[in-house]
Amino acid sequence: xxxxxxxxxxxxxxxxxxxxxxxxxxxxxxxxxxxxxxxxxxxxxxxxxxxxxxxxxxxxxxxxxxxxxxxxxxxxxxxxxxxxxxxxxxxxxxxxxxxxxxxxxxxxxxxxxxxxxxxxxxxxxxxxxxxxxxxxxxxxxxxxxxxxxxxxxxxxxxxxxxxxxxxxxxxxxxxxxxxxxxxxxxxxxxxxxxxxxxxxxxxxxxxxxxxxxxxxxxx
Length: 219
Fold this sequence. Notes:
With 219 residues, the chain is mainly alpha-helical. It has 10 helices and no strands. The N and C termini lie far apart (86 Å).
């Protein structure tokens, strides 16, 4: 047997082809690590609703998710990081502004808030954390910095564009306007009876009402 033939034969044996051994293919669906991460986040949210922040532990999350603690610590340094990521997973990314109409972009942003904040699990988990703000101020601060603030900055960007284009008045307080809009939607969601959905028309009503005072007359 020549050297080249031997190399080919070795390669075949190494791959299992010569013996008929089949290399198992990756199962369909999400990779195992991704499925494990989602199970951990789901378990965290479930336990938040059942025990609150104080009763939640890495051990309990691992047991509920069916993983080892080391699997959790590979991704998260501790309980706070895990809770923040779990809460963030409830919120879809803020939609990219189309930059055609400030009014329509604002409606789209508030509709995204309505859709995610109106989810029953989201309302319970976020309400629980915010309700425990006095006991865990650092957690609330991180929630605002990591989850709330990035979405609000998108809203501020739309408002700044409106000021630059003349769609909104030049002396607009962008920060106050962003709080006014997002706060109005969050309060609308909170006051909606459990089990019911805030209608899509709510976002447009809030934006129209705000722009009557923030901008010029509608075309």
